[in-house]
Design a protein that fits this description.
The protein has 180 residues and is an alpha/beta fold. It is 40% helix and 19% strand. It has a six-stranded parallel sheet. Strand 1, helix 1 and strand 2 form a beta-alpha-beta unit. Helix 1 runs parallel beside helix 6. It is globular.
Length: 180
Amino acid sequence: MSVPKLDPGRAALVVIDVQEAFRKATPDFDVVTGAVATIVDGAQATGVPVLVTEQYPKGLGVTVPEVAEHLPEGLEPVQKVVFSAAEADGFDLDGRDQALVCGIETHVCVNQTVLDLLDEGVEVHVARDAVGSRTEDNRLAGLDKVEKAGATLTTVETALFELVRRAGTDQFKQVQALIK
């Protein structure tokens, strides 16, 4: 079975719940947030729209500064209390039929969002180096489940170079600088 490459004309980046309350609970939180910030910058460099969600921000806090400072100016996160972002009021891929997903927690909100998007016929890619859970076992279980359901596991670097498509362009230079 062939897995299509990410296409900047079809894709949207979905950043799920990278919030303050998960900082102490998520191993390698700084690694995950660094990867999320890189993929957000790369999405913007390639013209891919960015959607951000926050799970119950009153209790869990807002998107952490190290990610928020990379978000497009004026972007308002979709606030939710459901685990699947796809079920949240205001969540809209705006006609895009590919979703590149990253965020926290892999086995809960990321997992349920991916499963719902797949059910809606969206082609889903999950950046496995830009997702986290409170335990590595939960992270791996979430990745295993979404892959078995039909999502494509990828990495930040793989996804961004698929979106760029070719060397020698301004987009390539921007993404290359992010990866280095």
